[in-house]
Design goal:
- This protein is an alpha/beta fold and 760 residues long.
- The protein has six domains: 198 residues, Rossmann fold (3-Layer(aba) Sandwich); 84 residues, Penicillin-binding protein 1b fold; 91 residues, Rossmann fold, CATH 3.40.50; 100 residues, Thrombin, subunit H; 132 residues, 2-Layer Sandwich (Sulfite Reductase Hemoprotein, domain 1), CATH 3.30.413; 76 residues, SP0561-like (Orthogonal Bundle), CATH 1.10.3910.10.
- The N terminus is likely disordered.
- 29% of the residues lie in helices and 22% in strands.
Length: 760
């Protein structure tokens, strides 16, 4: 990968020596750097030259994830691969082992071919025994148009290298045959290939989309890497695959210690992993870089040594004035200041502060020198740093607002992965990646065309059942273990989501990590979802392109803070499959254009959205939605959109968003009709009295009355996770019940509320 690039660093002196070391034959130790300073220098060296096959080895999983996060930020176009551990106690024909082995062989195949990939691995993963590179290359299939090859022999070879014959290709490692057509999905490819034969000659070849089955254009060659290669002589390591590449060792001494611990834990590991001495000896890397904080022997033989001083950035603890002062100071030293920000609202706040302090800035996608202006780039970097001798200061969002434990976003992993059949028992709730939540009913053998296969049986609502091939076990994910481990309650919502409640505060971070998901927002009064129907992209009934409009709304508004929770719906026709009129903001396509609605909601107080206007174009629809949301944010209290419209009146609302945004009246909120729900403790005869100003808050005081009478205490309620203060349940839920739900002592909460009330 080569690119035109204006470096943010002046590549001279020590920095030039470091950059050059990434392309020299032999080993170089670079000391004095820590954290993101290492990944930054690697990215700069890569951008100065070209991307080569690279293996980065860390001593544990946490540091591997930090490298991954930084590379995603600094080299967003780089192809990053993993090198998982193969469990040899399992048969290679199980779904899990095949999946793992496929990832392993994809990595080895790319390295053997000298492809410009980046491989991240722990020392345990990197020290696994593996066959020589020639073994992988010998089992590789290269298919070309006009190539003569016996179809039966080709099918046998595909089976030999681990591919599975199926009726229709869906996943990597599959192939299917229909007459003279062969579909094959190589493990290293993003899309499968369709080969058409004329006799034993490959006549045409094209890639296609699995979901649509549509062709993506013809190609002349298809390479099929093996899922496994039969080889009894596994005496090498992955280091043997770097003859033209780069090996980066993050703290070699810690790597040596970690590998020694692996061998001490289990005597049988002697047959699975190389020892440190033998692992070093297996390296054929053209270039080796050893990053270490201290200047000490790396234990890697003859190495060139380069020292460079780097400094970490202390936390600003949200003190924006302090940040501005530091930026001014660094600018006075003619340093390039880079702010790495991800959250849009936080970025806008920082930009406003820069303007107020008369500090110029530019916003770019690339890291380029912009001094004296501050450079703002989007991304998530593990930590900020200073390189004083290079006149560079990098400050991250975490440095400014505090660091959060976030896992690297994965496309597939949304819960704890079920690895073996013993992980689940009959009756467990499981989640299928497409079909959602169901109950596991066990294994069932089904005969199809004389072939017996094991299927996982899953029950859904009514009589619906799903029979999932047992070798697709990796599509199932389980949440019940989280509830069991932390003694929580597992509930299923009406939208087929899993709700885990009654978690203790100290267990929340661990639960998120066990689920493999990023933590949710603590404040729930924000745009929760933008629901979009397929529109004209897929649906023949659609009148407008709802996907295009909906994605624009999602990019702009999803997760933005609001006076209360908000849901947005976009439908491509009046059938309204997304129930757009039941959303706070709804847009429905018609033959003439778009109808824009506001104020819809479901739940205990359902409300159908009001028609605000009919517009002709997508641009007009987006503009009107902008006006609706901005007026709501500026003028609403802690209330849903529908409540806000009812309070000020529909005509006043329409006049404001369609005409003068400042001309709407603010009439007092009308008394809300009483809704008596039997069995919920809110019958008229037992309803708690309204809270009057000056009265103390008690355990029986209704949440909504507290918020309306003493809005100054809202931050106290939000601090315990009670973000949904505009929810209809707040109109009937007493304080003691809310405290119980959120796992806090009601009397401790009362003390805080009374302190806030009296302080006001």
């Amino acid at each position: 990968m080569s690119m035109t690039y204006k470096p943010i660093l002046d590549i001279k002196g020590t920095m030039k020596d470091i950059v050059d070391s990434f392309y020299k034959k032999g080993a170089t130790q670079i000391y004095g750097l820590g954290g993101s300073q290492k990944s930054f220098l690697y990215s700069q060296a890569t951008l100065e030259g070209e991307q080569r096959p690279t293996l980065i080895v860390t001593h544990d999983k946490t540091h591997k994830e930090l490298w991954e996060r930084d590379i995603q930020c600094l080299l967003p176009d780089a192809k990053v691969l993993s090198y998982p551990i193969v469990d040899r106690s399992l048969s290679q024909w199980t779904a899990k082992s095949l999946d793992t082995q496929a990832k392993r062989m994809e990595t080895l195949g790319n390295l053997a071919l000298g492809k410009p990939v980046i491989v991240l691995a722990t020392i345990e993963e990197a020290s696994q025994f593996v066959g020589e590179p020639c073994t992988v290359l010998d089992h590789m299939l290269t298919l070309q148009v006009e190539q003569d090859i016996d179809q039966q022999i080709l099918l046998e070879k595909l089976v030999q290298i681990g591919y599975e014959r199926v009726d229709q290709v869906e996943y990597r490692g599959h192939f299917s045959v229909r007459g003279d057509i062969l579909d094959v999905f190589p493990i290293q490819s993003e899309f499968p290939f369709r080969l058409e034969f004329f006799g034993d000659t490959i006549d045409t070849m094209r890639q296609f989309n699995v979901d649509t089955q549509r062709s993506m254009g013809e190609t002349a060659e298809c390479m099929v890497l093996p899922i496994h290669a039969d080889n009894d002589e596994e005496t090498c390591s992955i280091l043997s695959y770097l003859s033209s590449g780069v090996l980066i060792l993050d703290e070699p001494k810690r790597l040596e210690e970690a590998l020694g611990k692996v061998h001490k834990e289990d005597a049988s590991n002697e047959d699975l992993y190389l020892r440190w001495k033998d692992w070093k000896a297996s390296s054929q890397a053209y270039t080796t870089i050893l990053f270490s904080m201290m200047q000490r022997s790396a234990g890697w033989g003859k190495v060139q040594t380069i020292g460079m001083m780097g400094k970490s950035i202390a936390s600003y603890e949200r003190q924006i004035p302090m940040l501005m002062d530091d930026i001014k100071f660094n600018a006075s030293l003619n340093r390039q200041i880079v702010l790495v920000l991800h959250n849009q609202q936080r970025r806008e706040a920082i930009e406003s502060a820069l303007l107020e302090n008369k500090i110029s800035y530019v916003y770019r996608d690339t890291w380029e020198w912009t001094a004296p202006a501050v450079l703002i780039v989007e991304g998530i970097l593990s930590e900020g740093f200073e390189l004083p001798h290079s006149n560079l200061t990098v400050i991250t969002e975490g440095n400014i607002f505090g660091f959060q434990k976030k896992k690297i976003r994965k496309k597939v992993d949304k819960g704890q992965e079920i690895k073996y059949f013993t992980d689940i028992t009959v009756g467990d709730y499981v989640v299928h990646s497409i079909h959602g939540i169901g109950k596991y009913r066990g294994l069932k053998t089904i005969e199809t065309e004389g072939i017996h296969r094991d299927y996982i049986e899953i029950d859904y609502a009514g009589t619906d059942r799903l029979f999932l091939p047992a070798d697709h076990l990796d599509q199932l994910q389980k949440y019940i273990d989280v509830a069991n481990k932390f003694n929580a309650v597992l509930k299923l919502t009406g939208s087929q989501r899993i709700m885990i409640t009654n978690l203790k505060a100290e267990d929340v971070d661990a639960a998120w990590e066990m689920l493999g998901m990023e933590p949710a927002y603590m404040v729930s009064n924000r745009v929760r979802s933008v629901k979009i129907c397929p529109g004209t992209t897929f649906c023949k009934r659609a009148k407008q392109d709802s996907v295009h409009l909906g994605m624009q709304l999602e990019r702009k508004y999803l997760s933005q803070e609001m006076p209360s929770k908000m849901k947005i719906g976009v439908s491509g026709c009046p059938n309204s499959c997304t129930e757009s009129r039941m959303k706070d903001v709804g847009v429905i396509g018609t033959v003439e254009g778009w109808n824009v609605y506001a104020g819809g909601s479901g739940g205990a107080h359902p409300r159908i959205g009001d028609l605000i206007a009919e517009v002709a174009t997508e641009k007009e629809a987006l503009a009107l939605v902008d006006r609706i949301i901005e007026y709501y944010k500026a003028n609403a209290q802690i209330e849903r959109m529908g409540e806000f419209i009812d309070r000020i009146g529909l005509e006043a609302f329409k006049a404001a968003v369609l005409g003068d945004l400042e001309g709407a009246p603010t009439e007092p909120k009308a008394a809300e009709p009483v809704v008596n729900l039997p069995g919920h403790g809110n019958d008229p005869e037992v309803e708690a009295p309204r809270l009057e100003p000056g009265q103390p808050i008690t355990p029986d005081t209704i949440i909504r009355d507290i918020v309306d009478t003493y809005p100054v205490v809202v931050p106290v309620l939000q601090s315990i996770g009670m973000g949904c203060l505009g929810c209809p349940s707040s109109t009937m839920e007493p304080l003691w019940q809310a405290a119980e739900i959120h796992g806090v002592n009601v009397y401790d909460l009362l003390d805080k509320l009374e302190t806030a009330r009296k302080g006001a």
